[in-house]
Q: What sequence folds into this?
């Protein structure tokens, strides 16, 4: 068996990908009944597959990714219908990795389409810096801009940035072996467009139109304003050394950034300083001209990749308004206090349960037969013969527990 | 007129044939592009292949396979993408700029070499490490070898070599110790050989930041723990190699450790293997394939960075004081735990790690597969699928 069509959504980050993946994942059973496979057993299944394909370490998560791409490809190959794969970090795959990915999905015998959702650079650049900050980085915005404007792109940061954001290059890598009609560019509508427009474009591209789906998002990746991002960067500077990544994710990224600070929508939004903005305008124009030449299928309008004019004054996140940062800090402290109180209550509940368990155990220990057996085991563990005899006994009993 | 692509393909042919002329000195031509090979290999792949040829190129199938593996590989992890050779095309305004391979940073070449080395390790047969089980001697006292893991393993090797069977009577605990910088280097090396990825400086900074010693060489705590279990008189603190009278075998002088560059290389290979195989298979590959492959890479232990020296000295002084006060039987001089004149390497460099990686790749070529048995899973496949 082989799929009739594979839709490979390979990026870019910050273009509604989390929302799309969330809808596809939660509706996957319903979709499969309609002949559309979204092959994932966990929300981040395609992320793990991408880590495996590109051999990317990711804070320890990569250990859960062993064999994930091959397993994903096998499920796709075994499905008779349309299969969708979506993760934005696939944008950075090398040509060799892309060739392996396409071949594993049945290329050239299977009809493979590459989909790239794209948003104008003036919104993407600050969004990428913000993602860096939400992943523990402490880099100043000005330094970030300097690095991505370095024409040599030697640093890891600029390598990654352009790897996942340079639309013409991503499409040349992913679409190099495909007919242009099978390469689809979904443009993200400009600010002020109807909120459902992007979903309609995704829906159209992935063949979801007309299928009743639960569109209530559980996972989104909301944006922060200037003072809020500046605050998280400062938190990173003081907390990185004392907070392990496993705690950072739920406490800083989820609780503070996503659930608390992102709700402060009246603060200034991140933008580009005027000179960088002019450079990004020029770059965007060259991208749009190139994409028009290539003849890809465009869902939306390539002109939407040209930055919209802005009249809002530029707010520098490296020199944020102190009062705004203070207000954001108060919201952060309140959220942490509420969370700390919740954890204290949870701890108290667990202590109560533990005390009850201890009391139950103590009652069991008071039985004379138990005390006699305990004495016997302790004396046996003190010498080699005794330990040997205990090992035989435990093996014969068929339990690995060391307790008697 | 020779086009850039023709010259590029000619250089690929030159490298496939074992040549080592740098790209900027190369003059040659070939038809381009090739059927079935529309993509010219990237500059990083080509430069690694060239350096392999320069180091040990030869015209045979095994070497050609190695070069081909490099040319068709993709570097793992984060770093530069596949880069074009300078002078091939007129230059696309998109994508990373083309490069002269001679200008590539060693770090990027290491990343590529590490990816190929991981693949070669996965595909490589390995000897079985199954050790015959030896019956214990009931009347003999047991031995627990703890403390510095490299010294303890050296003692175990000596016992195995002497064919000494374990005892069943309540054990004597031999607590291996050395100067503290050496013990720290040994623990890091041992941990790397068990799959961890942090660099030496990060790892040391981690413990210094917590003002704690790694549990294995927190000798005061280890000794106290064993004293509570077997009695203080049966805990023997040994500074250096244990005497034959205590061990029942003579360990001899310890071998030179793996060089700091070799261990650094292993941390990077670990980073790749963590994505490719289960932890169990990762451990087998380290023990049975990778560490033996680096067996000749001996050298000085990694140096304690200057900013950590005061911390290491302070902890060593505390250790000596605490152990003196505790009064365990000691073989050797407790003062030798203080930082002394142990041979230390310079800081590792990407160039040094690259040299080790290239030599290791050549060894994967030189060691014939049929000399050894397959790795314990019995799979010589390039990728792990068990979950």
A:
């Amino acid at each position: 068996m082989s799929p009739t069509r594979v839709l490979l959504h390979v990026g870019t980050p910050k273009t509604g990908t989390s929302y799309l993946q969330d809808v596809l994942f939660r509706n996957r059973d319903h979709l499969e009944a309609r002949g559309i496979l979204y092959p994932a057993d966990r929300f981040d299944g395609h992320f793990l597959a991408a880590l495996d394909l590109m051999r990317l370490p990711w804070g320890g998560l990569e250990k859960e990714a062993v064999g994930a791409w091959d397993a994903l490809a096998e499920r796709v190959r075994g499905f008779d219908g349309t299969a969708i794969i979506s993760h934005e970090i696939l944008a950075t795959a090398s040509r060799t990795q892309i060739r392996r990915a396409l071949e594993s999905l049945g290329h050239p015998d299977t009809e493979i389409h590459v989909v790239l959702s794209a948003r104008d650079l003036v919104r993407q650049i600050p969004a990428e810096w913000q993602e860096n900050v939400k992943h523990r980085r402490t880099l100043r915005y000005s330094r970030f801009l300097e690095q991505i404007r370095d024409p040599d792109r030697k640093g890891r940061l600029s390598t990654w940035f352009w790897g996942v954001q340079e639309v013409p290059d991503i499409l040349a890598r992913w679409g190099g072996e495909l007919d242009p009609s099978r390469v689809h560019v979904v443009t993200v509508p400009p600010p002020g467009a109807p909120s459902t427009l992007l979903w309609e474009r995704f829906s159209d591209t992935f063949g979801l139109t007309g299928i009743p789906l639960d569109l209530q998002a559980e996972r989104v990746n909301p944006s922060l304003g200037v003072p809020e991002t500046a605050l998280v960067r400062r938190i990173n500077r003081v907390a990185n050394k004392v907070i392990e990544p496993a705690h950072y994710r739920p406490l800083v990224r989820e609780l503070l950034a996503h659930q608390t600070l992102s709700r402060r929508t009246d603060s200034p939004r991140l933008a580009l300083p005027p000179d960088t903005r002019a450079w990004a305008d020029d770059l965007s124009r060259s991208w749009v001209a190139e994409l028009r030449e290539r003849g890809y299928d465009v869902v939306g309008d390539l002109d939407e990749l040209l930055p919209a004019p802005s009249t809002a004054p530029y707010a520098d996140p490296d020199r944020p308004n102190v009062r705004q940062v203070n207000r954001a800090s108060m919201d952060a402290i309140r959220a942490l206090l509420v969370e700390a109180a919740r954890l204290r209550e949870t701890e108290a509940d667990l202590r109560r349960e533990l005390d009850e368990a201890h009391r139950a155990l103590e009652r069991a220990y008071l039985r004379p037969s138990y005390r006699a057996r305990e004495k016997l085991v302790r004396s046996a563990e003190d010498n080699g013969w005794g330990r040997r005899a205990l090992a035989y006994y435990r093996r014969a009993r068929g339990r690995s527990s060391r307790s008697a | 007129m020779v086009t850039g692509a023709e010259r590029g393909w000619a250089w690929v042919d030159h490298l496939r044939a074992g040549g080592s002329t740098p790209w900027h000195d190369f003059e040659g031509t070939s038809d381009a592009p090739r059927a079935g090979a529309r993509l010219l290999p990237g500059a990083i792949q080509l430069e690694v292949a060239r350096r392999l040829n320069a180091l040990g190129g030869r015209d045979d199938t095994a070497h050609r396979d190695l070069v081909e593996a490099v040319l068709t590989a993709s570097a793992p992890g984060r770093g530069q993408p596949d880069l074009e050779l300078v002078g091939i095309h007129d230059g696309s305004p998109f994508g990373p700029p083309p490069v002269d391979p001679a200008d590539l940073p060693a770090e990027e070449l290491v990343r590529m070499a590490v990816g190929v080395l991981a693949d070669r390790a996965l595909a490589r047969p390995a000897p079985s490490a199954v050790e015959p089980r030896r019956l214990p001697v009931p009347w003999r006292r047991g031995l627990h070898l703890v403390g510095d893991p490299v010294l303890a393993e050296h003692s175990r090797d000596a016992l195995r070599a002497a064919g000494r069977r374990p005892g069943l009577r309540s054990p004597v605990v031999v607590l291996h110790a050395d100067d503290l910088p050496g013990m720290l280097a040994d623990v890091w090396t041992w941990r790397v050989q068990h799959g961890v990825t942090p660099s030496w400086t990060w790892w040391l900074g981690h413990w210094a930041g917590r003002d704690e010693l790694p549990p294995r060489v927190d000798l005061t705590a280890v000794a106290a723990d064993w004293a509570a279990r077997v009695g203080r008189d049966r805990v023997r603190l040994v500074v250096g190699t244990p005497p034959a009278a205590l061990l029942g075998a003579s360990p001899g002088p310890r071998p030179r450790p793996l060089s700091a560059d070799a261990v650094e290389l292993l941390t990077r290979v670990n980073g790749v293997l963590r994505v490719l195989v289960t932890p169990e298979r990762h451990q087998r590959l380290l023990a049975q394939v990778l560490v033996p492959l680096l067996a000749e890479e001996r050298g000085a232990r990694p140096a304690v960075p200057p900013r950590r020296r005061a911390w290491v000295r302070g902890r060593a002084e505390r250790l000596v004081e605490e152990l003196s006060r505790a009064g365990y039987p000691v073989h050797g001089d407790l003062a030798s735990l203080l930082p002394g004149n142990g041979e230390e390497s310079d800081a590792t460099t990407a160039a040094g790690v690259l040299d080790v990686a290239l030599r290791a790749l050549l060894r994967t070529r030189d060691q014939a597969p049929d000399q050894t048995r397959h790795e314990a899973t019995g799979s010589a496949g390039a990728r792990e699928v068990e979950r």
Summary: Chain A has a mean pLDDT of 91.
